[in-house]
Amino acid sequence: MQKALWTPSPEQVAATQMDAFRRYINQAHQLQLSDYTQLHAWSVAHRVAFWLAIVEFFAIKFSQPASEVLTENSAMPSASWYSQTKLNFAEHLLRRRDAYPALISIGEDGSREVLSYQDLAAHVAGLQKSLIEAGVGYGDRVAAMMPNTWQTVVGALATASLGAIWSSCSPDFGMQGVTDRFGQIEPKVLIACAAYRYAGKTLQLAEKIKEIVARLPSVEQLIIVPYAHAEAQAASFKAGNARVTLWHDFYQAAGEPEFVPTDFAHPLYIMYSSGTTGVPKCLVHGAGGTLLQHVKELGLHTDLTAADTLCYYTTCGWMMWNWMVSGLALGASIVLYDGSPFHPKADRLIDLIDQEGISIFGTSAKYLAALEKADSKPMNTHSLDKLKAILSTGSPLSHESFEYVYRDIKQNLCLSSISGGTDIISCFSLGNPALPVWSGELQCKGLGMAVEVWNDAGQPVIGEKGELVCTRHFTAMPVSFWNDPAGEKLKAAYFSQYPGIWAQGDYAEETIHGGIIIHGRSDAVLNPGGVRIGTAEIYRQVEKLPEILESIAIGQDWDNDVRVVLFVRLREGIKLTEALQNSICQVIRSNTTPRHIPAKIIQVSDIPRTISGKIVELAVRNVIHGRPVKNTDALANPEALEEFRNRAELAY
Fold first, then answer.
1. CB neighbours of 421 closer than 8 A, spacing ≥ 6?
2. What's the rounded mean pLDDT across residues 357-367?
3. 139: how many CB neighbours lie within 10 A of its CB?
4. How confident is the model at residue 532 (pLDDT cuts 50, 70, 90)?
5. Where is the AMP-dependent synthetase/ligase domain (predicted)?
6. CA gap 566, 554 in Å, rounded
7. Is the pLDDT of residue 649 over 90?
8. Residue 337 bridge partners (DSSP)
9. Does 565 reside within a domain?
10. Which of 332, 329, 290 minimizes the C-alpha distance to 311?
């Protein structure tokens, strides 16, 4: 019988904000909800009361009491939240104003800068004033091509304080990738770094920035942050008609910020789809929905408090950056790390956990798998005494990685695999410090989220694979797609499969524990002989083998059917021998079904992935079928695709 990898003690449960919230609901509504299952069911059945409770529990400040919490005229996406009141997102992230560390910004080169909550407010106030003088107002866009550093957070908060709209990407995006995104939203201001560091190298950006500004005629003000290039001069970045100013010349940190009240659904952030199938879609997320969803997930599901230090290894082009920044609303310290997680050694981020007393550490499933492959055993080399939770997302976390964390990192912590995405700038399913951790499972559905798994007949199922859906409106739905006034693109993206029901595009399974297993993306599901196979099921088995660093599986059209083709990246110096191929097939056969065994196994030197680290199965599938990949600039390593093109092995 399966045993939980970790179970919180009754004392640990009672000390969580999740359990405090359950008790709060019981008292406020004269209920006797005894566990999370009952609390979740209540939160979905009574969404208005639930979201009002979130507002009260986390002291969300509105311009006036909410008279209409939820208006639903028809099925999703036609609904509105808190339409009769206003708030400001940045105001809630800047409520704390003491000398406590707000942002701890650490570079790959070891540089370290700390901004207290007092400092942060002063920087936001100064930048806000200068943005106003630069002509930025309500609804204008401020874009950033920046590393994960304190200036980026200040830029986002100053923008939000004005009711303007923030959008960011990381500096490793290609020029076309940047202009494909920012060109659609026409920013008035662009903030960019002069250079950035990665894996021991410094990459200069002057020429790229000039070309980007030349392609963005809407930019009136370019602000250059001399990051990784202290000698940067404004004149070196002059392009087009945009004014160019260095960051420290543009404003002075002083005064108190003011906060422009915005509608609940007023655009806060513009995020982007991966863009691997065409020009990226621009997802617009509202101020109120983002705030409520984030404080719920950070405060309850992650148990983040004002005494905690949070670090999520991310870039500013991934929604986890926006999610992490919202930790300021809980009064926590946020560690911003910029650079390679493995430079100069595999334990770089593990060192950081000890050095900064990080209590909640977030990363990708790929990172944890790579750490295990590097034979890192932090339990033997680090204290990790403050660490109470590890979060993982980006791709399904394998059973082996679950077991690795508890075997080699730390036994007494909550390992939370979480899943949602840019689509909702938050999670459908995620962690819970008051619940056990089961290998391979996301612990629970998010509060207020009517998440189900549906079979092909559109019926909810447990213990069977199917489509992950959300059957009721929730606050963190995107308020729109940019330049989609009739909402047709939004409906096509999420509501075409089941009208009125959000279909996330994940191939998933609900477990008897109330948890969720993600088996891969629905559009990447393999279908040999009409049997649906999630790619994550194959990766989990293949990547057990020590010779294999990572793999990617696609379905190739073959003989009026589909056959599974597996590409593997091996450790340096290892070749794909017949014996290794047999081992791969054996481990798959022993742990899955004969249908999962690939018809072809092919060695490659690299596997293409997006800049946020997700492997791109659809792009590889298109390449091997001779179809174009429309936007390779969305990839971190587009050159890797060429290795999949015209492979002779695929012709027989």
1. 319, 504
2. 95
3. 12
4. confident
5. 96-473
6. 7
7. no
8. 106
9. yes
10. 332
Q: How far apart are CA 65 and CA 131, in angstroms?
A: 31
Position 102 scores a pLDDT of: 98
Residue 454: both structure tokens together: 């549906």
For residue 63, the one-letter residue type is S
Which burial class, exposed, middle or buried, applies to 603 when counting CB atoms under 10 A from its CB (0-12, 13-18, 19+)? middle
Identity of the residue numbered 230:
A
Q: Model confidence over 372-413: pLDDT tens digits?
A: 999 999 999 999 999 999 999 988 899 999 999 999 999 999
Whether a cis peptide bond, with omega within 30° of 0, leads into 77 is yes
Query: Which CATH number goes with the domain that contains 619?
Result: 3.30.300.30
Q: In this structure, is residue 459 part of a structural domain?
A: no
What tokens appear for 180 in the block? 């494909």
Whether pLDDT at 630 is above 90 = no
Give the three-state DSSP class for 461.
coil
- Structural domain containing residue 608: 525-651
DSSP string over 147-177: -SSHHHHHHHHHHHHTT-EEEEE-TTS-HHH
User: Is pLDDT of 528 > 90?
Assistant: no
**Amino acid letter at 577?**
T
Q: What is the pTM of this model?
A: 0.91
Residues 399 and 545 in one domain: no
What confidence tens digit (pLDDT) does each residue in 96-106 have? 999 999 999 99
506 within some domain: no
Distances (CA, A) of 82 to 251, 289, 449, 466, 482: 35, 9, 18, 33, 22
Look at residue 277 and tell me whether its pLDDT is greater than 70.
Answer: no
Tokens of 90: 């940045």
The predicted pLDDT at position 612 comes to 76
- Together in a domain, 111 and 223: yes
Q: Cβ distance 79 to 484 under 8 Å?
A: no
Question: Where is the domain boundary, 444, 459, 488?
Answer: 444
Q: What is the dihedral of CA 616, 394, 595, 627, to 10 degrees?
A: -10
For the chain, the average pLDDT equals 94
Asked whether residue 280 is domain-assigned, the answer is: yes
Q: Does 422 lie in the same domain as 548?
A: no
